[in-house]
Amino acid sequence: MRRDQWPGLLVLLAVLASVAASFAYLAIDYRALATPESLRLMGRFVAEFFPPDVSAAMLAKVGWGALQTLAVSALGTLLAAAAGALLALPAAGRAGRAARPAARLLLNMLRSVPELVWAALMVLAAGLGPFAGALALALHTTGVLGRLFAEALENLPPAAERTLREAGSGAVAAFAYGSLPLLAPQAAAYVLYRWEMNIRMATVLGFVGAGGLGQLLYFHLSLFQQAQSATVLAAMFVLVFVVDEFSGWARRRLAPAHA
User: Hey, is 95 helix, strand or coil?
Assistant: First the structure.
């Protein structure tokens, strides 16, 4: 083995040792999962979810919860896209060298806090309901989109904007007509991709009181109403599938423009 391959091997060995140490430290008895009693209990638990409750009242409740989840994810993503775009300008050095590290620090702080933590804080600040979930998604996603927008801005070819400036155009007009058309398709793809992720996260945020399908699922699971829970889970799957397909289609439509 060559000498330059030793660092990679040492890193691999360190990772494997860490994984083995984690399993040993947790002391999980995996054999207990395969005992006949455990398998019987798991099978009975799964069987209680079938058949799902498809009554008109339950479907109406699930439909309303799905709309709440969709609204929470859409509002949170739109707020984050607007705030992230504003913060991306100083983070990319468009507002001077002093503002760049401050903006990047703020973006790092926003995205370093998980959505569930933001949701718990927003529930305390704004009360239970979908608005707290939208704020939680907006805060975390602002950090993510702001950083992505800033990186995209820094990687744009400067020729178009520089040409407009040399022709006498102002800074704002040069950015709007030179750089923004190049940035827009990539930024839109980032926003759509984060919306996909926020749909999934919006369902989880309901467990801490942020409304939507997650709160409905928590309610029925806490009452051991497995048939109703199965209906909510099915609605989650359908909603995520539809949004993923739409987002993927939209991003594919944007790809030729970006290329």
Answer: coil
* CATH top-level class of 56-258: mainly alpha
Of 204, 238, 235, nearest to 63 (Cα)? 235
Question: Would you kindly state where each structural domain of the chain is located, as residue ranges?
Answer: 3-47, 56-258
- Tell me what pLDDT residue 173 has: 82
Spatial distance between the Cα atoms of 57 and 51, rounded to a whole number of angstroms: 16
pLDDT in tens, 196-215: 889 888 888 888 777 788 88
CB within 8 Å of 79: residues ≥ 6 apart: 134, 135, 138, 142
Q: Determine the average pLDDT of the residues in 21-32.
A: 78
Question: Cα 108 from chain centroid?
Answer: 15
- What single DSSP character describes residue 14? H
pTM of the model: 0.79
Q: How many CB atoms lie within 10 A of CB 184?
A: 13
> Region 74-90: what's the mean pLDDT?
94
Q: Judging by beta carbons within 10 Å of its beta carbon (0-12, 13-18, 19+), is residue 43 exposed, middle or buried?
A: exposed
